[in-house]
Amino acid sequence: MSRRGEMALVAFLQAQNCSNYAGSWRHPETMQDYLKPQYYQRIARILEDGRFHMAFFDDRLAMPDILGRDHAEAVRNGVRVVKMDPVSILSAMGYATEKLGLGATYSTTYYEPFHIARVFATLDHMLGGRVAWNVVTSLNDSEARNMGRSEHPEHDLRYDRADEFLEIVLSLWDAWDDDAIRNDRETGIFADPAKVRRLKHKGRWYDVEGTFTVPRTPQGRPVLLQAGQSGRGKTFAANWGELIFVTQRNIEAARANYREFKESIAALGRNPDGVKVCPAIYSIIGTSEDEAAEKKARIEALARPVDALALLSEVLNYDFASKRLDETFTDEELAGIKGLQGIRDRVVQGSGKKNPTVADFVEVSGRGTIRDFTGFHGTPRKIADDMAEWFETEACDGFVLAATHMPGAYEDFVRLVVPELQRRGLFRKEYRGTTLRENLGLPRAQQDDWRRSS
Q1: Residue 301 carries which DSSP code?
Q2: Alpha helices in 329-426 (DSSP H)
Q3: Which of 208-217, 332-341, 394-403, 443-452 is the least confident region?
Q4: Looking at the whole model, is its pTM more than 0.85?
Q5: 246 CB contacts (<8 Å, ≥6 apart)?
Q6: Which of 111, 216, 252, 453 is deepest in the core (most CB within 10 A)?
């Protein structure tokens, strides 16, 4: 292994008609059976063959229907409009694999703590300790209206509420001692009630009293994923996340963010080495640089202007059809963005403009294109070189691989790049254990180990 050990590899999935790249469904090699379990099981087996640590599903609770305040363009163009519940799909993938970690996104804004605690604890039992929860606070008013609310809560307020939400979920997951269950038929004692704690929580947002119904799971509790990119979101991620998904455009920015984030984790009393920071990437692989460039050009041509506008409207909770391409955003409009403020901040910084235009948002964000994430393109050796530089110089702890087409992007990476990483000692050839924590190099979660003095 390299001096830093092994990098983490995670697949970034969507339970829908396309990958993160909205144009991927237009690719001639993308499979179209995404409404069937075999589609996801096929991907899961590929990833497990490649010894990926985990596959996780991003999710929204609404389709991208904010552009023009209508769903028509998104539906017509297939812009990430099919959104199935990811937990059911994780079950199908889990039963087709043995060691691949599996994660799903569930929102603290529109679900209840007990519900999420029970869903993920149950799944962790059913899949032998391989489960992770991607914690989000959701993005936009469309999600709010689908869930019976009039509008989406303000950005920082969502994270304040989510802090209390996490305290409740973690308390529920820790309610049963590992040895609480006795199964003693002779005495008739099923479990020791002294080893099952009742939760009595009264806080700003929640008043919860009750006893959790799912015993402690094989890995102690599910792994927590997070993707906070804004100021308040970064604090939340540093406080709770065990694997952090980030977006970085270049290695210099990634190194600076990595150092800052690890320092924030330490300042909160956590061990920085126990938190993986992994940027999202696209990878287009060719047997030569020319072949990779030709494949990249074909893939880039799949994107349409409506993809960017619909997805920007979705993640920023702002109707991009309400402005001309050359029209600037006012200070008030920028301050009022309730969605992914990290994208807003990146566009302001990248454009060099205090008040960027719609066109600036499209160009700098790269939303709806493969420029949305860092691109590692070329021969397997070239891609391994790039990944090694990021990993060895502490720009990251691993990578989250998004797909340009399904499942071919993962097949190419597993067949061509993974062996090159393994030859260099950057990636493992076998799984370390059976649970996700074991395979990520994280210790089994202990009761109350998340509690820190304020």
Answers
A1: T
A2: 331-335, 341-351, 358-365, 380-392, 408-412, 418-423
A3: 332-341
A4: yes
A5: 227, 229, 254, 257, 261, 277, 278, 279, 280, 396
A6: 216
